[in-house]
Amino acid sequence: MFAEAEADPSLSKDEFKPLEARLRVALLNAQYQRLAKADKTLLVVVAGIDGAGKGATVNLLNEWMDPRHIKTLAYGPREGEELERPPLWRYWNDLPPKGSTGIVFGSWYAPLIFEATRKKPNHDSIEAQAATIRRFESMLAAEGVQIVKLWFHLSAEAQQERAKRLLASPETAWQVSPVDLKVHKKYDRIRNAGQAVLNHTDTGHAPWVVIPSADENMRSARTAEAVLAAMRQRGVPRISPSFVAHSRPARIVDRLGQLDYDAKIEKNDYESELGLLQGRLARAARSRKFQERSLVLVFEGQDAAGKGGAIRRVTHALDARQFDITPVAAPNSEALARPYLWRFWRQVPRHGRIAIFDRSWYGRVLVERVEKLAAPANWRRAYAEINDFEEQLVASGALVLKFWLAVTPDVQLERFQEREKSPFKNFKITAEDWRNRDKWKEYAAAANEMLTRTDVAHAPWHLVSANDKRYARLQVLRHIVEAMEDLH
Question: Which molecular function terms from Gene Ontology are attached (predicted)?
Fold first, then answer.
């Protein structure tokens, strides 16, 4: 894979000049065509041997194309708030919209490359990290993000000679880092690590391209050709089934039908227990232990099941500076220009904070499925992608609790009619709510499949009978309080 690059091929000035002129025009034209279509994002991932000219080449791309539509994303070691969220959070957070191009330095490959370069690499860790990367990239590719990965490579002699040449001039010496100067001492180990990384993560939908980097002209030309080929690629690359996350096979159980909808609590008992639970929640949320964790609360359920009322009873016990409530409606144009989970990744809380979702990422397997707003392949794929998302949240210290508030059709009808008559509640009822009632069975089937495929130990679903609002509110609070107190 590295044989050609280590031969240090070169392009003469006479060969490069006409090629440069053609490539600059072609790149600019391709860039504007992609902007006009705005159907795909291009991510160019930059990696390779230190001191191979990666930074200089990316600067050149910004010169050859319109830099207003290129977002250069440079990352160092995680720090500050990044350490309180999943490692992939910062990449999700910065994803550019469809039509534009992102160039990524210090990408999600940095930890994998670091592990592979160690004297005694942990091969289990390498396999696990590579698997995470493959899932991430396949998810992005399936959602319209085109990925091309450039590995800049050259021989040990050429790398050392380039560093000396740059150091000789005050105008270029800044381009050489202390790490660059040490590469030749452990070149073989770095080379073998690169080979392992490429072997583990080279796929048809996110390919690696090795860029010979000893000669500046050759490096520039090959980089431009690789980016141009990606820009000109039509359609969406086929993702091999082996790289796509699949939900586990399961027998769908009618869990909604098994609920005790007659469960209720008397008003006097409700008032006293509500105060006790809110007090316990207040203490748990202010505890020192919770400052090392975060809380993600998901509220789903039928229309008029009382999600808003339950959320208010939770937030009554909390400091308003500690939580954020995200009401989830149809995605806006900004969200539609990016992968489905992007807008939810942006709301991931840091430690000591609480994120409350009034409806959530489960919309893809509920309303988008039933109303045929998402293709079957997309919502079927979503179960495993959601499980993966929640697993990353938990691994970073989040406590994830999901609530389905369930009512019967007759109770929902009563509440709809009450809302229409009340001047304080009629804003809550819409024509869409009435339309959804006509598809009660379809929504129930979608909910039962969702519950079966995404109820996992680390992010459990709590089904709550909500025909009696007081009973439902106490159940929600009790589950939250017990889970938070278990942290101690």
Answer: dTMP kinase activity; polyphosphate:AMP phosphotransferase activity
At residue 111, does pLDDT exceed 70? yes
Q: What is the mean pLDDT of the chain?
A: 92
A 10 A CB-CB count for 7 gives 13
DSSP string of 291-355, one letter each residue: GG-EEEEEEEESTTSSHHHHHHHHHTTS-TTTEEEEE--S--HHHHTS-TTHHHHTT---TT-EE
Residue 365 resides in a domain: yes
Give residue 401's pLDDT band: very low, low, confident or very high (50, 70, 90).
very high
Say what the pTM is: 0.91
Residue 251 lies in a domain: no
Rounded to whole angstroms, the Cα distance separating 150 from 130 reads 17
Q: DSSP secondary-structure letter at 459? A: B
CB within 8 A of 113, min separation 6: which ones?
Answer: 47, 193, 194, 197
Query: Strand pairing partners for 461?
Result: 402
| C-alpha dist (Å) from residue 157 to 93, 162, 169, 340, 434 | 39, 9, 20, 46, 73
* Strand, coil or helix: 145: strand
Residue 415: helix, strand or coil by DSSP? helix
Q: What is the pLDDT of residues 289-344, one digit of tens each?
A: 999 999 999 999 999 999 999 999 999 999 999 999 999 999 999 999 999 999 99
For residue 289, give the CATH number of its domain. 3.40.50.300
* Structural domain for 118, as ranges: 3-243
Check: CB of residue 206 under 8 Å from CB of residue 139: no
The answer to whether the beta carbons of residues 339 and 145 sit under 8 Å apart is yes
Let me know whether 55 and 119 are in one domain: yes
Separation of alpha carbons 441 and 446, rounded Å:
9
Domain count, the chain: 2
Structure confidence at residue 127 (pLDDT): 97
Helical (H) or strand (E) element with 208: strand 208-212
Burial of 414 (0-12, 13-18, 19+ CB in 10 A): middle
Regarding whether 466 and 334 lie in a shared domain, the answer is: yes
Distance CA 440, CA 430 (A): 16
